[in-house]
Amino acid sequence: MSNSNRYVYGIVNTADTGDIEFETDAVAGADRVYTVSHRRLGAVVSNIDTTDPEETDEDAQIHDDVLREIMDHDGGKTIVPMQFGMAFENDRTLKNVLRGARPAFRRAMSDIEGRIELGLKLVTQEDGSIDRDEVEDAVSDELDPIAAQAVQNDRFSDRLVLNRSYLVDEDERESFDEAVARLEDRYGDDLLVQYTGPYAPYSFVNVEIGAQSQ
Predict the structure, then answer these.
(1) pLDDT tens, the chain, 214 aa long
(2) So where are the chain's domains?
(3) Which CATH number fits domain 115-202: 3.40.630.40, 3.40.50.1360, 3.30.70.360, 3.30.460.30?
(4) pTM of the model
(5) Record's Gene Ontology CC terms (predicted)?
(6) What is the rounded distance in angstroms from the CA atom of residue 41 to the CA atom of residue 145?
């Protein structure tokens, strides 16, 4: 198949970022990412030989790694992240998608500009004993005043007391780290604290961009 297909990692405002291009390990063995732009929007892409990529563990991790590279690129970029698997047949199809979803992308960029996603899971230790309601209240008291937004994720285990994602201003990252550290000091004997990130803010972006190929 042709290698003219475009695999999309996310969308940037090229008026702020300019064109992005750098060499890196990309999805499906590609070695370069770059922007395909329409007006002031740019899709950060790599070349791929399919519009239906298989989501292997390796490529899912590469997708996230590339997003982090873009976020850190040349002093830092705001990117609206796409979930794994968005691929389009050619530049024309992709530009049509950018044109159609332009208002939604611009709103999403405004919501996440200068912000990162951080994750917090609290898991009961084997012999831990805690009051779940008290823990949730304490977490909210510490973190909600710092975070711009928070969302509750699935509790996929009986031992999982809390599973939240937070949208945090980059300027507030240190304060957020310190608040998590206080929670760990307070509950560390009874709870395993899993603090992860930063991520591109997947949990705070919901942009439908239409069919993957036309």
Answers:
(1) 345 799 999 999 988 777 899 999 999 999 999 999 998 999 999 999 999 999 999 999 999 999 999 998 887 789 999 999 999 999 999 999 999 999 999 999 999 999 999 999 999 987 767 899 999 999 999 999 999 999 999 988 888 999 999 999 999 999 999 999 999 999 988 999 999 999 999 999 977 665 443 3
(2) 5-113, 115-202
(3) 3.30.70.360
(4) 0.85
(5) gas vesicle
(6) 32
